[in-house]
Design a protein that fits this description.
Elements lengths: L8 E3 L5 E5 L12 H7 L3 E7 L1 H11 L9 E5 L2 H4 L5 H15 L5 E6 L1 H5 L4 H12 L4 E6 L9 H10 L13 E5 L4 H13 L5 E4 L14 E5 L5 H9 L3 E2 L7 H15 L4 H26 L3 E4 L6 H12 L2 E7 L4 H10 L5 E5 L2 H11 L3 E4 L1 H9 L4 E3 L2 H4 L8 H19 L1
Parallel strand pairs: 2-13, 3-4, 3-5, 5-6, 7-8, 7-9, 9-10, 11-12, 11-14, 12-13, 14-15
Antiparallel strand pairs: 1-2
Helix pairs in contact: 7-9, 10-11, 11-17, 12-13
The structure holds iron/sulfur cluster.
Iron/sulfur cluster (SF4) binds next to α2.
Length: 427
Amino acid sequence: MNAHAPIPQADAGCGVAIRQERGQRAVFCGLTGIVWLHRKIQDAFFLVVGSRTCAHLIQSAAGVMIFAEPRFATAIIDERDLAGLADMNEELDRVTRRLIERRPDIRLLFLVGSCPSEVIKLDLPRAAQRLSQSFAPDVRVLSYSGSGIETTFTQGEDACLAALVPDLPRADAHESPSLLVVGALADVVEDQFARLFAGMGLDLVAFLPARRAGAMPSVGPNTRILLAQPFLADTARALEARGATRLAAPFPLGAEGTTAWLRAAADAFGVDPRMFAEVTAPGLRRAEQALAPYRTMLAGRRVFFFPDSQLELPLARFLARELDAELIEVGTPYLHRGHMAPELGLLPAGTTVVEGQSLDAQMDRCRAARPDLTVCGLGLANPLEAEGLATKWSIELLFTPIQGYDQAGDLAELFARPLVRRTRLEV
Ligand code: SF4
């Protein structure tokens, strides 16, 4: 589609206009997810089978967080491999063997595909199977693609978690119903949610991914899944194929989002509404107190979202409903209408949601609108800042714990910070 061609529009049925755009995109590839996933699964290792560009991307994205031996690396595909002069499978086996010998702490190894491995059609699922057999039972080897041809930014996590699903232990139909929270959360956030669920009397609660490879949760027909992240379409599909049922809920961002998310689980497990109110009241109060000063800063501020992380809809809902910001345009790379239905229902009537991207057209609209704050990828932030627009890097929203009551204030602060900095510079 031409960048300036008319855009198909649809109404989501809740007064939100959804438009679709196709054209040039500016987003990171799915390798980026390794930066937060390697910290989450503590005995896993991510071996990217890629080029020097892939190695640089991971190093620079995660650079500040490397302190000792990182749990990711890149097996570089060089010119000899690309020219078909070397047997890539033999080389991959050799690199993997050396890695496992040197790092006996690794229990789960992900071979992560990239653009180069896809271009030379390296069969990573088969390589993972072969290596898994040779390292069993000590190390499990799985594969997924983080290539920029197949995935954007947060889809890397979706591909990784979906790769875990076939290996999850099977829960029988006669087992008691259990709750599975799906999506990588910072440990501190996970612990807070676990305490809240325990306070409501829910004791069969597990998280995917688990912190250790040997502690991955079981899944079966009595598993109720609650998505903690909005970009897990493939993972949810794989879990549903194993018989699990997804609970519809907004995402746990902000005081309102967190309450609605917790309530979806509480309702599914028949928690008494009074008990729910009692357990959530202290957190809700803390969140509302933390948000109040930021509402003064963000009320009436006009915000423009470029499509990047798939977190855009819940973030926009939070900004509009809890901080009184005004939404100019909410871009999202993909819109899963099923998973996003509760979020769409909460967006203010008249909100413009744009699915997909046509970069030039979107840049034109952003420049014309002159937003107070633009949420975008790193690549767009510098040019927009140079034009005098305040920006927020969407990647920061993935690296920072933002879910739950006790992080609501931090989340608001992330949006307020560029505005405060700008005011200081002007002074
Ligand atoms: Fe670039 Fe592709 Fe490697 Fe990502 S996977 S860093 S897009 S070459």
